[in-house]
Every structure is written in C-alpha cells, then in structure tokens.
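The protein record filed here:
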Amino acid sequence: MDSDGFEERMHELEYFHSLRLLPSAWVIIRVDGRSFSQFTKSHFEKPFDVEFHKLMVQTAAALLEELHGIYAYTESDEISVLFPPSWELFDRSLEKIVSISASIASAKFTHASQIVVSFDSRVWLGVNSSQVIDYFRWRQADATRCALNGWCYWMLRKSGETARKATKILDSETVAFKKELLFQNGINFNELPAWQHRGVGLYWEEYQKQNYNPIEEEETLVTRHRIKLQENMPIKDEHTEFLRRFLNIE
C-alpha cells in the first residue's frame, strides 16, 4: 500500500470549511449550556441557585483568561466573551474558535461541579463599537426577561400549578402583570439580587503587588492583572458608560 497516497485520500474526505472571521471586526463568542433546562432542574434550586451562578462565573473567567478576551458577561446558562478587532488567536479560524471555546467551557464547568455537562458555541461579529454595546444591552434585556418569566413560572409550579397551566397563565402577559403576580405572592422582583435579572460582568483590572527584588535586596511594587467581577451591573445609559469606560470603546 502506498502510505502517502492512502493518507492523502483520507485527508481529502475531511470536511473542513477553513473559514476565517472578518478582519478588523469585534468578535464575541457566546457559549450556551446544552440541555441545561433539564440539567439544572435535576441538580439545582429553581429559578436561581447561588452555586450554579458561581459555577457559571468560574466558567466565564476561564474563557476570558484562556482565550485572551477583554470582557465577559454571563446570565442564566450563557456566557458572552468579547475580543478586540486585533484579536488573532487561532488565526481567527471559525471552526477552531467554536470548538475550543465550547470544550473549555464544558471542561471547566464539569471539573468544578463534578457533573458532566456540555456547551455549544457560536460567534457574533460587530463592525463598530456601537454594535458591541447594542449586543450586551440585548443580552442584559434577555437576562431580565428570562428572570421575570422564570420567577413567575416557578412560583406558580411551587404553588401547585402544572407545567402546562403555569405556562398558559403567563402566555402573552405583560411585564406589569408578571411583576404584580410576584408581588402578590411576597416577591418584589426589583429587590431580587442584581445578578439574577441583570447578569454579571468580568474584566481585567490592574493592581499593585509587593515583590522582593533579590538583586537590589529590597521590596518593590509591581503591576499585575487580575479578573474583576462586577456583580451589581448598571442598566440602560449607565450600562453603556460602563462598557465604554472599561472596554475602551469610543
């Protein structure tokens, strides 16, 4: 057998797009938990669980660090990580980016929780900073919508309603109706922990660390970087200013 010819024929059957992300575009990778609705129902408190939230924050931090991102946002079972137009990791190969980001998220969450899970991944591209801001405002709006629906649904379920009846009660109802429904059952939606209905952000910050210089035999201050967690996310115009200030978006 001609080993070189055999290998070449096998490579010809590989299906590979070789797609590259648009040059000079802002890149956002969004990973989502696969079948997490059933998974979280079996292992965590509904509608929100502090331990699950901590696991998602750890997973977001891993993606931010390993992929060299500049900002990450997580709400519910999804994480969005932002990369500047100059980002060239994996030569901007789409298939590499989605496969490796999904595997990082899956491995980190599984290791931290000791429960096997999987994430999928997709890429969003923005041609300017305004679109980037719109993207994160969109995801925060989704966080608020999902949180309100989740609280209403699980309040009804825990009060004895079936899944079908709870869904029917909430179908096509307004935000005001849902907030009033919660309020009548002792829950003020606006006073719930901010991370539940706004999500949280992670970004890099500089800090000073004391270091010993053995040559000079003296203590010195050195600048290091670490990931900072923004638990109390701003909203609306303050959210926009938050993104501009920390992400250097003009």
About this structure: The CA atoms of residues 212 and 219 lie 4 Å apart. The chain is about 50% helix and 20% strand. The chain has a mean pLDDT of 92. The two ends are 61 Å apart (CA to CA).
